[in-house]
Amino acid sequence: MSTTVRDGLRREVLEANLAIPQVGLATLTWGNVSGVDREAGAFVIKPSGVRYEDLTIDDLVTVRLSDGAVVDGRLRPSTDTETHRCLYLAFPSIGGVTHTHSTHAVAFAQAGREIPVLGTTHADTFNGPIPCTPDLTAEQCARDYEYNTGRVIVDLLGQDDRRAEEIPGALVANHGPFTWGLSARESLEHAIICEAVADIAIHTLSLSPVGPPPPHLLERHYTRKHGPDAYYGNPGRASSM
């Protein structure tokens, strides 16, 4: 199998990484995006510690999906590479992964709390709360820490690819959000939405303790964008970030 990734993937991954600070999701170098080419058996990811303003397409690193070996690139890949690889192996539907330390989503992660569904803004994208993992054990941190970070997400979702499609993100306790999608760009869009609904939830909960909205309202908002009866948007026209 060739590990040469398809045309356009490196450019897509570069543009998604460059967008992280532009949309306010990262401080310094605290975030990364990857995109996978399953036919090539490899994914492309941001290198470790490189500032976004210095990042070029030649800096990106290509990693083999089967074993995590670097197959193209002169720099070390992101320290979160093994987490991305774990998610790709567990969920065949996903084509891109984004990790950030965005403020409001991290606040929920540090509190060990899921982001609850409090309105239709959340339900438009996530078909349920954005869940939070349990703490990693001492053993999980001591050995294969980054891969185990992916494992706790996979276990949280029951290694269920359908659930990963319906809830395209999770919080790692005391760490932060990982989101995914059909492409690198879509995974970034889900990171933007995750941060936005976390911000809205904190404001809502500060005003009043609230219960969940009516399930039929949430279902209507999710299904009008997702599934066989979806009618949001226009064919051939990309949605806005």
Task: Summarize, please.
By secondary structure, this protein is of the alpha+beta class. 39% of the residues lie in helices and 14% in strands.
List the helices and strands and how they pair.
Elements: H1 9-22, E1 31-37, E2 42-45, E3 61-64, E4 70-72, H2 81-90, E5 96-100, H3 103-111, H4 120-123, H5 138-142, H6 145-156, H7 161-166, E6 169-172, E7 176-181, H8 184-207, H9 215-223
Antiparallel strand pairs: 1-2, 1-5, 2-3, 3-4, 5-7, 6-7
Helix pairs in contact: 2-6, 3-8
Descriptive overview:
With 241 residues, the chain is of the alpha+beta class. It has a single domain, classed as 3-Layer(aba) Sandwich (L-fuculose-1-phosphate Aldolase), CATH 3.40.225.10. Helix content is 39%, strand content 14%. Strand 1 and strand 2 form a beta hairpin. Helix 2 runs parallel beside helix 6 and helix 3 packs across helix 8. The two termini are 34 Å apart. The mean pLDDT is 94.
Name of the CATH homologous superfamily: Class II aldolase/adducin N-terminal domain
CATH architectural label: 3-Layer(aba) Sandwich
CATH topology: L-fuculose-1-phosphate Aldolase
> Main β-sheet, in a few words?
7 strands, antiparallel
Range of strand content: 5-15%
By DSSP, the count of extended strands is 7
Which spans of ≥5 residues are poorly predicted at pLDDT below 50? none
User: Regarding CATH, which class?
Assistant: Alpha Beta
**What is the number of helices?**
9
Strand order of the largest sheet: 4-3-2-1-5-7-6
Specify the helix fraction band.
25-40%
Structural class determined from secondary elements: alpha+beta
Question: How far apart are the termini?
Answer: 34 Å
Domain count = 1
SSE series: HEEEEHEHHHHHEEHH
Average of pLDDT: 94
Mass-distribution shape: globular
Q: What is the radius of gyration computed over CA atoms, rounded to a whole number of angstroms?
A: 17 Å
